[in-house]
Amino acid sequence: MLTKQQRVYHWDRPSSSIFSDRLGDDDLPHLGRALGVYRSMAGERLGRVRDRARSALAGVRPDRVEAVVQVLDDAATYDWPRGGQAAARRVRVFERAARDHPLLDGDAAHAFLAEVYGESLPEPGDRVALLYADYPEFHRLVAFPSDYGVADLRADYDLGQAQALLYSALRVTVEAGTDLGHIVRYARLSRLLHHLERAPGGYYRFVFDGPNSILRHTHAYGVDFARFLAALVQASDWRFTAEVALRKGWRPLLYKLTPADGLRSRLSAPALFDSTLESSLAEKFGPERDGWRFRREAAVLEAGDALLIPDFVFTHVDGTEVAFEIVGYWTPEYLREKFAKLGRVRAPNLLIAVPRARALEPGPIPHAVLPFKTRILLRDLLPRLEAFRKR
């Protein structure tokens, strides 16, 4: 993703609106030349590749150049010495040279390098790159995807600028008509706290306001908004509104998007489960156990004026269904709100997994509770599922 310093945006004071930057058709020839640089410079160090790409982008508006180069770098594959080997070698060279300080003999310097790196040494002009091969400037370009074209570069730039604008988002609202499971899955994968409610026209409204109401407003949470946007644009029916504060104390500006804006993401399919806790449970449970099967996020439950999509729905062959929600580890404020919301759920068969320390707190939840320590055990889960069949 782009950095905060690489973002480019336009804003309109009268309407309090803000817009992320988009590349135009007249930029495409320059993008093509920059792509040619990355395809032709395999083996070169990162610094030189970037400089050549900047020259190829001389016709692009200057404030866009670094962002385009960053997108190209993200698509490329670089290699460098891993671990601490490069730093250890560098220290050995300096320690050896210190014995003869000041070192003015070039042949002696070559000999010291040979002691540490072996006989195969680069020309004198590349010895700095050898010493600092683990520094980003000297990483080596290994490959660039052959199927990555100008349209991909343009789409990644446009999406990257939209994402970078969300680093300063205070609150995000999404209204979705379809692909609800996709949106919920990625909201959880992006670690976003959200409130779900019904909206007019058969839509569902997600309100992501964690930095304001529960957490401190942090850049890290803005990055989570950015990750979520890359998944949202893959859905088909949604309206996105973010409140963006460019500086502390400034009045927030509204940033709005819909599928009509044409943002495109090449994000891969999500992991099936949001956490190791869930994946471990699913792996142990298997496709079927004692007549029970489970599905992910397969129900929408009423919780007063809000909605809840439980993590699992367990279904028995006799038709018994049990919604299963796992309460994870979050801030005390979030957990209090979560428990209050669960208390408003009107579902006859709801089982809630709660960390043992929280399950013992006063104020019991009016639903069946499964306490757990670090993982959910089948020997604890199955009897509670069976209890619903006996009702």
Descriptive report:
This protein has three domains: 85-138, no CATH class; 155-261; 276-389. The chain is an alpha+beta fold and 391 residues long. The two termini are 52 Å apart. The chain contains 14 helices and 16 strands. A five-stranded antiparallel beta sheet has the order 6-7-5-8-9. The chain has helices at residues 28-40, 46-56, 62-75, 85-98, 106-117, 127-131, 150-165, 180-189, 210-213, 219-232, 276-285, 332-343, 356-359, 378-389; strands at residues 9-12, 17-20, 77-79, 140-143, 169-176, 195-199, 203-208, 238-244, 253-257, 292-296, 301-303, 306-308, 312-316, 321-326, 350-355, 368-372. The model is unreliable at 210-215 (pLDDT under 50). The radius of gyration is 27 Å and the shape is globular.
Residue windows where pLDDT falls under 50 for at least 5 positions: 210-215
Oligomer: single chain
Share of residues in strands: 15-25%
Mean pLDDT: 86
Largest sheet: 5 strands, antiparallel
Number of strands: 16
Q: Provide the structure class.
A: alpha+beta
| Gross geometry | globular
| Topology pattern, helix = H, strand = E | EEHHHEHHHEHEHEEHHEEHEEEEEHEHEH
